[in-house]
Amino acid sequence: MKKIWLIIGVGAFLTAAGVGGMKAWKLYRQYRIQEEHRERIENDKNIRLLGDTSKLYGEDGKLKIPVDFQEIQEENSDIYAWITIPGVTDAPIIQSSGNPRNSIFTEKLNSKDFSDPLTVIYGTNMEDGSLFGGLFQYRDRQFMEEHPRIYIYTSEKALVYRIFAAYRTDNRHLLKRFNRGKYEGNIKAFIKDILNQRYMDSTLDQDAPIDTNDYFLTLSTHDSEGEEYRYLVQAYLEESFT
């Protein structure tokens, strides 16, 4: 009789241990999935902040965008692109018909695939330096030389822009003023306007290899001098990865 109860007890113990083991394994697997997710996000961020375009392609030769758009669009479906300027900003881009607070966005006048000759990205000038609060560092020519590139990511491509100008200007609407760069004359006027900037804190590369065939990106934020001014950082498309 004792032997029977011993067998029953051992069986119950093993069953309990088995159930406990399964729970422990499930918890471990959940932990590993979370860790792998965190590591992937951190790895993507490191690639973006280092501007390491050599890691944009996997061993299979396919483009690997260092942003999980499927995941972030589940949280905000308006996000369609990502902007990274190492040492300045690393944030999502939305498209809006208004002027959303505390965000980086483009207007519906611009296409979402960055195929327009002129694209303007607006961003809030945050006091803590986030979003476009760090753009004012480009008043320093050395900073521009050390942080010359803007990286734009969409779900299908990565674009690298070279910064060649940063300056304060009035708050006229660039896309409307230069007709979105639809015609060669618009682009000529746009380039001339940039290179003619004369503000004391303007930072310009007069020798930048730009012409009417280039694609231009403008980052725009409120200037500290007041609402009637904007601070712009201008760049031209240097490289595209698809």
UniProtKB/TrEMBL annotation:
Gene3D superfamilies: Sortase. InterPro entries: Sortase_dom-sf, SrtB. This is Sortase family protein. It comes from Blautia glucerasea.
